[in-house]
């Protein structure tokens, strides 16, 4: 298969290297990723500035790689429209350095790149793990993605489906299995701290920590219990559960 | 009620002025909006830089107004966490200069600010109209929002619901009514044009136009047929339709 690999940590991040190194053993890979860190850029796209696309060499990676002066969603768009002339069979976004769990995925550039792929009619997988200094954490996550791709292909992963995968940062033998589940609640409790004044203006800094906010049978619950989680996502934000009710209001 | 008003076109945009001017007749308003244009920033948040919050005076507006050196989602977060000490009853985001229809709402800072409000347990309304030089277009959209707020309150709009409203840029007497409906397909056909080379790098510029891509009974279909559209949105990206099926894959 021809796979486009992207991320939001930038083309030089160790997560995307580990992913490419594993997947280029089995597939044709093209990396098109941001030129720098783009965490928390969500589904933003660059509309007012041009995108600069540069071929880059990555150590120990055989596949072609390009950096883009834009967001993860920009990477998917310019890659499928211009850089890659042939059909892309799947987009894999990651490995993100930090989980993408619960409603926090709304902020994620990694997940948004995968959602953008489905808007371009390409099925996609987003993959994240907890930040770690250990290489085996990323190598292990990459091996799980090889497996998830095989399963997805043998089940004909439809072009409008994103699978959001999180892998716990533990040794392979300690992983209890794969759980397909819904997303949970907000993971990061964020708050602002007033850090001073600049002339008349107030200055705030964002602080926060991950909270254990478990709802059973959700992604954060399972990942904290040693499972790899797989959540199918979609891109239609309509709240169909209440569409009829709201229809009676007007 | 105490309403927080924000947008993605920036605190000095004419859409937010028209909205505030209408709603401050009936409600307590605080404006907290980006200091400049932030279109297409989606649900991105500022994590690495501090946010600078500045009180600003807006011509013909009595309500307090603040500019923020961040995204629309940042505005909602810092406003509810720090700037506004009392409970906010509702967030209204807009009036966006340009429709927010179909799956294009994924890119929208205006819609994302409203979604962020619901993550902060505040019900929210996003409102957009087609870009227009005519003041009455924005004044008319503001009057519809006054009405939508009344209806939402009398039906106890729940804290986890966003209503996405689009108002066509036509005279009030030509508007056929209000339709509650699902979102449609992609509205903008985007493509990249190679505009030259900088040293060894390729440079691409985004171009695009709105395409008529109507699916019946969707927001774009109705708005192009002279209706104000209201779509309830949610923030759980889990694809529940296929969750069980994917569960059988692994």
UniProtKB/TrEMBL annotation, chains A, B:
Binds 1 divalent metal cation per subunit. Its cofactor is a divalent metal cation; Mg(2+). It catalyses: a ribonucleoside 5'-phosphate + H2O = a ribonucleoside + phosphate. Residues 4-188 form the Survival protein SurE-like phosphatase/nucleotidase domain. One of its GO terms (molecular function) is nucleotide binding. It is found in: Cytoplasm. InterPro entries: SurE, SurE-like_Pase/nucleotidase, SurE-like_sf. GO terms for cellular component: cytoplasm. A divalent metal cation binds at residues 8-9, 39, 96. Its EC number is 3.1.3.5. Keywords: Cytoplasm, Hydrolase, Metal-binding, Nucleotide-binding. NCBIfam families: PRK00346.1-4, PRK13933.1, surE. Nucleotidase that shows phosphatase activity on nucleoside 5'-monophosphates. Belongs to the SurE nucleotidase family. This is 5'-nucleotidase SurE. It comes from Vallitalea guaymasensis.
């Amino acid at each position: 298969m021809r796979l486009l690999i992207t991320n939001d940590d930038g083309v030089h991040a160790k997560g995307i290297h580990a992913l490419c190194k594993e997947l280029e053993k089995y597939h044709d890979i093209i990396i098109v990723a941001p030129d720098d860190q783009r965490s928390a850029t969500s589904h933003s796209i660059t509309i007012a500035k041009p995108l600069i696309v540069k071929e880059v060499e990555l150590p120990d990676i055989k596949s072609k790689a390009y950096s883009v002066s834009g967001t993860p969603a920009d990477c998917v768009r310019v890659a499928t429209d211009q850089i890659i002339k042939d059909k892309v069979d799947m987009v894999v976004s990651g490995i993100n350095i930090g989980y993408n769990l619960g409603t926090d995925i709304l902020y994620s550039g990694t997940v948004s790149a995968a959602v953008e792929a489905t808007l371009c009619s390409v099925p996609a997988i987003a993959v994240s793990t907890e930040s770690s200094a250990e290489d085996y954490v990323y190598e292990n996550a990459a091996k799980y993605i090889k497996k998830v791709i095989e399963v997805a292909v043998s089940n004909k992963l439809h072009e409008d489906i994103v699978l959001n995968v999180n892998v716990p940062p533990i040794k392979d033998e300690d992983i209890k299995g794969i759980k397909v589940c819904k997303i949970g609640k907000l993971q990061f409790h964020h708050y602002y701290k007033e850090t001073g004044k600049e002339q008349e203006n107030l200055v705030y800094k964002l602080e926060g920590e991950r909270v254990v906010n478990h709802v059973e049978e959700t992604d954060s619950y399972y990942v904290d219990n040693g499972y790899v989680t797989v959540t199918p996502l979609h891109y239609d934000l309509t709240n169909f559960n209440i569409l009829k009710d709201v229809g009676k209001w007007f």
